[in-house]
TrEMBL record:
Residues 378-447 form the Chromosomal replication initiator DnaA C-terminal domain. NCBIfam families: DnaA (TIGR00362). CDD domains: AAA, Bac_DnaA_C. Keywords: ATP-binding, Cytoplasm, DNA replication, DNA-binding, Lipid-binding, Nucleotide-binding. Plays an essential role in the initiation and regulation of chromosomal replication. ATP-DnaA binds to the origin of replication (oriC) to initiate formation of the DNA replication initiation complex once per cell cycle. Binds the DnaA box (a 9 base pair repeat at the origin) and separates the double-stranded (ds)DNA. Forms a right-handed helical filament on oriC DNA; dsDNA binds to the exterior of the filament while single-stranded (ss)DNA is stabiized in the filament's interior. ATP binds at G178, G180, K181, T182. The keyword ATP-binding applies. This is Chromosomal replication initiator protein DnaA. Residues 351-469 are annotated as: Domain IV, binds dsDNA. Coiled coil: none annotated.
Amino acid sequence: MQREAVTVWNRCLQVIQENISDQSFRTWFEPIVPLRLNGSELTIQVPSQFFYEWLEENYIHLLRKALDFAIGRHGQLQYSIIVDKGDESSKPLTVNVPTTKSPQTAKPDNVDADILKSPFEMKDLDSLQLDSYLNPAYTFDNFVEGDCNRLGRSAGFAIAQNPGTTAFNPLMIYGGVGLGKTHLVQAVGNYIKNNNQDKFVLYVSSEKFTTQFINAIRTDSLRDFMSFYMQVDVLIIDDVQFWAGKEKTQETFFHIFNHLHGAKKQIIMTSDRAPRDLQGMQDRLQSRFKQGLTADLQQPDLETRTAIIQKKLQAEGIFIEHNVIEYLAHSINTNVRELEGVIVSLMAQASLNRREIDLDLARSTLRNIVIDSDKEVTIDTVQDVVADHFSITVADLKSKSRKKEAVFPRQIAMFLAKEQTELSLKSIGYHFGGRDHSTVIHAIQTISDLVSNNPQIRETVEKLKASLK
């Protein structure tokens, strides 16, 4: 019975494909599955209620024409609609409905429904045209790979080469501010756009998507809005956490997601947290987010920070000594965006003051940028405050001297650096004459024990902390 249905449906598709664009055919007819043929009644399975309604509203005349060709005037069409129950553990329901529109209500033969309704032809849908909204500057070539982002980068590149056909669909990239989420997902989009001319890539922020959705409701063009998104080959949504609590937006995206995923179109998303931690999200949508691959971007490690600095300087055609690069890499470990911002400021300072980029300029520039005293304390500030309190020099703190008058202040400075900054033990050791991290651990433990048992030392440390604030 199904074999006969497939044969009849293939005959229908011959007529349909001759009368609509390739894009519309792939979107609205390739996902259909012929189920059975009972006499002159053909039953086809469609992915959703919206899908069924769109076919009935826009292609009923074309379907009638196809049935006349494949079965005859007495041919009838019945739909089997997949309805998601919203329960992750249960299978979708299938609801059978007969066709409700008659050929008399259809559009005239000389009017192509695709021309009238295809959102690709509509230029007034919130100014959405065939623009991918990608920043061409975001590429894989200038995305620095490291241990902190290797999984996401590898998955992104695999998708870029074979969108929609890998196991990484959807791909969810999450991480804190300034770690390169937007750069990575747009690099995927740019690669696909440049190497697959037949695929339409769209990048949109979650806020932009919501605004378009609201405007579509206001202008009574929701169907056009949904149809547009259902025809996208690669959909990239940035910052989905902003949909928290927006039930209608989530519901609309849920239907778009199901359609695209079922049609093997690629979906890529970013978030500032893991899917399981997204509050205010529908359970069924969260389960979709977890379907493919979830990869986090972490704070860049020392080696990656060094490579980012070198890459940025190379792109600008600027050479600076390695000790300056090393200083910057050890001093900034928050995120990529702040690191790049410091480099830009450093180049600007050098240009304005007409001087070479050396260690002194790097220190003063960094001190001026990370000046938010309520929040940030730099390693240089710690060393200056400790050296001043004990009437020694910063050079003494960094020296190899084992004299008591240098060792004790050095240990206190290491202790405060660990407590007051976010630097790693390795970076703290670097700033104290290139000492090993085990030396830093010993210093921290020594001062910690003294603070617990010696009121005088505790008072000194508290005084130094107050100076840092």
